[in-house]
Design a protein that fits this description.
Layout lengths: L3 H12 L4 H11 L4 E4 L4 H13 L4 E5 L6 H14 L4 E3 L3 H11 L8 H19 L5 E3 L16 E4 L4 E4 L7 H11 L51
Parallel strand pairs: 1-2, 1-4, 2-3, 4-6
Antiparallel strand pairs: 5-6
Helix pairs in contact: 2-3, 3-7, 5-6
Length: 237
Amino acid sequence: MKSSKELAQSLSADLENKTPQEILKFCLERFKGAIALSSSLGLEDQVLTDMVAKISPQTTIFTLDTGRLFPETYDLIDRTCSKYKVKIKVYFPNREDVEEMVNQKGINLFYHSVENRKECCRIRKLVPLKRAFQGLDAWICGLRRDQSVTRKDMQTVEWDEANGLIKINPLINWSEQDAWDYVNEHSVPVNSLHKKGYPSIGCLPCTRAIEPGEDIRAGRWWWENPETKECGLHKKG
């Protein structure tokens, strides 16, 4: 019997050259009842929401509300639920943990050190994510290899050691243009900030618009080196 890691490697090899829809159709059936789409409401996640809603509309879709999101992101949640007749499940951080962190280190602690920023991400994202993962065997996310240096080695299907789950990346081989082509062809609702120079959108104080020629994730935690620019959701091991 294959281990979970071996299963992930086998599935990745089998699905590497399949279309995102084929990958989703297979995995949604393979892990039926124990799989969910984790959405940050970004461009790629909206593409996947459209695909999942058409393939298996009863599939769980969830998002993390850190308490520091853009108003435009909240608007997109509402528009997405309305268009696809789905309920995106929202997970919030623990109030006591947020209060303690802010009262000890300040409201904008993340600007002061990488350690502080990662602690904020842990409390506002990683802890709620653990709750969202309860009862799941697999999760779907919208990673692409060309998004950043921290994602260039990621595979179509991976074993997520940190969370003990199969991780599925149907758009891993896509370019940003591929995603926009799909959005335009299928009239997928997207964040209005994309048209204002925000290709990657996270929390409001940790996201800025990018300048022409900059990397698409240059606006995320822009005060840090590229090698540290992950919140921990996609950490291997």
